[in-house]
Amino acid sequence: MNEITSTRHNHLIDPSLQIWNWEIPVYLFLGGMVAGMMLIAGYFLFKGRENEENCSCFYLPYISFVLLSLGMLALFLDLEHKLYVWRLYTTFEISSAMSWGSWILVLVYPMLIVNILLKPPAAVVEKFPILNKPKEYFFSNPMRIKSFGVLTMFFGAGIGLYTGVLLSSLGARPLWSSSILWMLFLVSGLSGAAAFVHVIAKNVYERELLAKADNAFLIIELFVIALFIVGLKTATEVQASAADLLLTGDYAASFWVFVIGLGIVIPFIIQILAVNHKIKHTPIAPLMVILGGLVLRFVIVSAGQFSHWFRTY
Fold it and tell me: Which residues are CB-neighbours of 249 under 8 A, at least 6 positions away?
């Protein structure tokens, strides 16, 4: 992540002089969405919904595969030494969040491929009948499909946790130095995925269920954000100053308007009215949730780059 510094007053950084990368926030956002989709698809498999013709657990893996690939591309574009990325896979550093994440992301692809093969396109199966073997194997035993659903949720949670741990492991930035950042990104990813599936789901039961689930995720996300801010404000002076970047500083407008207001509070009110049949379901609220999740990553990454231990705001 690039950074341009300038001296102003007490060695402060002027945000207008910084060049923020878009690749990392987009990568974190897409990773969170994929994590949420894998958790949702795995849950439906665990609950035995694989027999439903229009279950979202059959088409979410396709979407997840594409989004994860786009996220990996964004991460690759951010790398300074692109030709040496293969070295990440020549070793495994147990204390490195990047090492954990690199291997988890590699293992997720086979998981998504198996998910896709649970119901491969009929036209493809006609040409390649062998692709129907995974479906026959898992569907022949209900416990196999349930176990695979749990495994899918496990890897989905792993991606969601990693997107938060990746930043919190960089202790040089006081805004990111929080043990609850992983939970914020995981819940935000779940909320965004639930909102997305709520819009595209073909099954009425799933639309209703995910709208209700998203309301719960939004409440939890708001609670986690409060804990995140309180944790920073009650820590060191520098961490408290970093929290002020979001509360009253240069990033306050984006944080309060796009993350809290348009990304959580307003869509929560709309969806509460919708699930209680006061108004019709509308894609506006889910789209606001997804946009809020994206802005959250941009705000956290940008404000985190702006925060430093040796500065007093």
Answer: 303, 313
